[in-house]
Specification:
Layout: H1 12-23, H2 30-42, H3 46-55, H4 72-84, H5 88-97, H6 102-107, H7 113-125, H8 129-140, H9 144-147, H10 158-168, H11 171-181, H12 185-197, H13 207-210, H14 214-220, H15 223-235, H16 239-251, H17 256-267, H18 275-284, H19 292-305, H20 313-324, H21 332-341, H22 349-356, H23 364-376, H24 384-393, H25 398-404, E1 407-409, E2 415-417
Antiparallel strand pairs: 1-2
Helix pairs in contact: 1-2, 2-3, 3-4, 3-5, 4-5, 5-7, 5-8, 7-8, 8-11, 8-12, 11-12, 14-15, 15-16, 16-17, 17-18, 18-19, 19-20, 20-21, 21-22, 22-23, 23-24
Amino acid sequence: MEESKMGKFFSDAVETALQYIYYQERQGKGWEGLQLLQQASAAGDGDASCILARCLCGPQYVWQGHGFPEDDEKATLLYHKGVEEGSALAALICLRTGDMTPSLEKKMPFASLQEAFNVVLEKAKGGEPFCQFVIGNVYFWGDYIRIENKGPDAFPDMGAFRDYVVENIPKCEDWFIKAYKNGVYAAGDNLHHFYEAGEEGLIPPQPEKAKGLYRIGAEMGHPIHQFYWGNELNDAGQKQEALHWYQEAVAGGEMRALYQIGCLYEEGEAVPQDYAKAAQCYETTLNLDGYSIGSHNRLGAMYFNGKGVPQDYAKAFQLLSWAYNQDNRWGVFYLGKCCFYGLGAQQDYARARTYLEEMTWENKEANYMLGYIYARGLGVPADIKKGVALLQKAGDRADAKEELLRYRKTLFGKWVVR
């Protein structure tokens, strides 16, 4: 984005904050921007109150790499404050978030939502990226229907209303492209969704346009899109290029990419296999939203196997149990082994069986352990027939063959202990 003269569209404080928080978030000045917004909002700047509210609404509205706190209640108060202080931007965003109640609409210093829309539209036409993004959202989410006060009743039939909707939704594309290329990565997110999904029954998807879209944001330096672009390359098997963008993303503060780097090191893809480096990556992302479960599982398995870290069954059981308690079943084989053999946990055959029977994939050792449990009646009523069948599925495992020697089939076809 070309640098504009400060105060051209908003106050200096708001324009600087937009740079730090949305357009050039890689600079690491997000908190400086937040402080500017807080000061300007306290002084009665409605636009500052509006942008500050968005910053408190979580990763759907602001890059999580800033580490801003979430406070929906405070955000709602700030949105209302922004509207009452005359922010057209706040009026449109409140409409989008569902905060534009009839009572609030009466309090805004605009004759109508259309007037507020026109104010933001003029700034968008003048080149202000965030306003371009907001105008794009008006068409993307269908808020123009309320702004123009043209619901189905305003048309002779539903076909005419449908034509009206089909005519307006695609207008989001041009505004999103402008906003994206001018520095608003979130516009790229919505544009990507528009291309991928279209609008059911109205606008067909255009997946060919979505492909490679995140590269634009990645090359502009947006850490989150460097991460997304890395994922796209990774899925396409372009591991070396993916690694490059993951590293760029991490350098910019997008720590989710560090988990993916850990996976590449663990699997020896794009880099020489290095379990120690993989473990370091997982350790760092243990508490990262969206990746904590994967990090707990993978690091837990590494502690169990002693890869990249000293073997520590108790630590493995602790990490894998945490992920299991988040309703994730990736580590049930390891948890079952811990309970079956008493590794890092108390030996508990009933608990081992519970874990192992949650596996959705075949594993010879799991079949051996379950067969052993059922045949001997450990924590479950003995069922030699079932136990033998499981032991036989364990294949050529020596322990399974040895256990099978304990049983024989009678002339009547019943399995019994020898």
